[in-house]
Amino acid sequence: MRHEYLPPQHRSRLTRRGRLALFLTALLAIGAVVLIPMLRGEPAPETPRRLLIPEGWRAPQVYAAVDRELRLPAGSTKAAVPTAGLVLPAEAKGNPEGYLFPATYPVTSKTTPAELLAHMVRTANEKLATRAVADGGKAHGMTPYQTATLASIIEAEADNRADMGKVARVVHNRLAKSMPLQMDSTINYALNRSTVDTKLSETRIDSPFNTYERQGLPPTPIDSPGLAAMAAAVAPTPGEWLFFVTVKPGDTRFSATYDEHKKHVAEFNRLRANAGPAARK
Fold first, then answer.
1. Distance separating alpha carbons of residues 120 and 150, to the nearest angstrom
2. In a domain, 242, yes or no
3. How many domains does the chain have?
4. Collapsing DSSP states into helix, strand and coil, what is residue 176?
5. Where are the alpha helices (DSSP H) in 144-213?
6. Could you list the residue range(s) of the whole structural domain that residue 83 is in?
7. Would 38 be classed as within a structural domain?
8. pLDDT grade for 263, boundaries at 50, 70 and 90
9. Where are the beta strands (DSSP E) in 55-191?
């Protein structure tokens, strides 16, 4: 290869030109997306914010969170439900409870409540249609809506994910024996609250969500279940349990007989009494 000698002044000029070319190339490669709109007088692309919808939230909580994130007056998202074109099963009768799938959603200044709700419902339908969930539901003779309803109870009742399959088994065993589910979570939904203290008088309220008085699943889901709860609903842990009580956080006792269950409930009450009023809030 032949090399030509260049005087220092020419080498310096060549170096400056090379640096300029490299700078312009990098600028175009890195900043083209931002630079071109700016040259046209357009604003730079907006970085989406993130809206987190946790597992177990009820529809009113989701509506309120969307209103806050989109900086809309309270009630705006709920008002958008009838006209949002949500793809819900006929059983839902237009109520998206249970289908506002818990996940993190991108939000920009142009996002509308209808778009967010449609995204959540579409995601819930996709999760319910996954092969494991869909096939498991069919094996138990359950529609996707029934799967979502059962999953919502599991989401509300299970103290942790490890217990979801056992909670699901209790529900399946009770349904098989035509026993009322007797779930405090459905009473809480009927009374629009969240507590572990259910009074005897409250188990007699006149509500379709009173699973102490009425057999079978409640008429709708009671919260937004995640995929783990959906999977547990159609693949319950093998067992003969009919009862359970969370004696303390991380310690849920499952029982096949009522006598055994009463002992666990007695321990729960003893621990609560020793903990004082603060533990009952």
1. 19
2. yes
3. 2
4. helix
5. 144-157, 164-176, 184-190
6. 49-127
7. no
8. very high
9. 104-107
